[in-house]
Amino acid sequence: METTSDFLNIKDVNTAFKINGKYYDAISHINLKVHHDEILAIVGESGCGKSTLATTIMGLHDPSETKISGEIEFEGTDLLKLDEAGYNKFRGAKIGMIFQDPLSALNPLKRIEDQISEVMTYHTNFTAEQKHKRVLELLDEVGIVNPERTARQFPHQLSGGMRQRVIIAIAIACKPDLIIADEPTTALDVTIQAQILDVLRKIQQENHAGIILITHDLGVVAETADRVAVMYAGQIVEEGTADQIFNKPKHPYTRSLLRSMPQRDNENDDLYVIQGNVPSLQKMPTTGDRFAPRIPWIDASAHEANPSMHEVEPGHEVRCTCYKSFTFPDQTGSVKV
Ligand SMILES: Nc1ncnc2c1ncn2[C@@H]1O[C@H](COP(=O)(O)OP(=O)(O)OP(=O)(O)O)[C@@H](O)[C@H]1O
Asked: Which CATH class is domain 8-94+176-262+271-331?
């Protein structure tokens, strides 16, 4: 459903990488909308295409090595039609990005203040004084206790959690409408993770931004997301509100991910392990259910030949009809895995 708050509309996007002279799809036929005032989480195992989707939105691919098709409509502009100069007007200004590894995203030789100011120099007409004031404001906003001191410091003088706060400050410096956070807490310990997620949530509420949160960690999703898109092997296999995904999951992949997630009350139980691996791009099946090889006990006839998305309730869609007959091996009582 189209609403006035849809400001990012990804339509039938494919991104293929050139490997040994041939192109292979890393993401296929992605359709996704992001609204203002929401955190949309994209989850899936490593290699499912989450980062490729993020870097496709940000226009970070080398056109000589990548083929991209489809449309990414952002506030009325098709980002995929922009050249580098056009993209630079959006990146940092209207779209902010937070990467996993804050140390490699920061310049080790520059003071924090200069790194935060840089983005404002590029995108605003602020005077030096205005930029200085905004740097301190931003550091305060992301929860840095002594902004004056941190502004003067170099990245190596900060802890991992503080560095990630600085990265967030850079990403939000120009009040972007869209923030893409790719595994923003993976490198941090659990307490710091929770603080960074709080900062993200606060910023989303204050700036009315839309956030795409990419993570393989369902715990992070449960704590933060409003909506969730589950990706498997370059496709979205299920999409819904956080409540629908956690409480009424349908796709066998979503259910497997949830079952393999440690729970506070089943710490001593054996966790479910999803058989096999995400296929490499060269081995990616082009027809059939891409997850079928990892649930071999489900009869082939349960899968659609070319699985499409089906609405199960408003806002909740699932790929393939196999979810209707899916059970785990221990639930069927008759299958050994
Ligand atoms: N530049 C590239 N050239 C060739 N293949 C690539 C390139 N970038 C990613 N891939 C492949 O595309 C697939 C999707 O990778 P991607 O990094 O998007 O997945 P992901 O879900 O974000 O995983 P991770 O969490 O490990 O980053 C993988 O098979 C990966 O090996």
From this structure: alpha beta
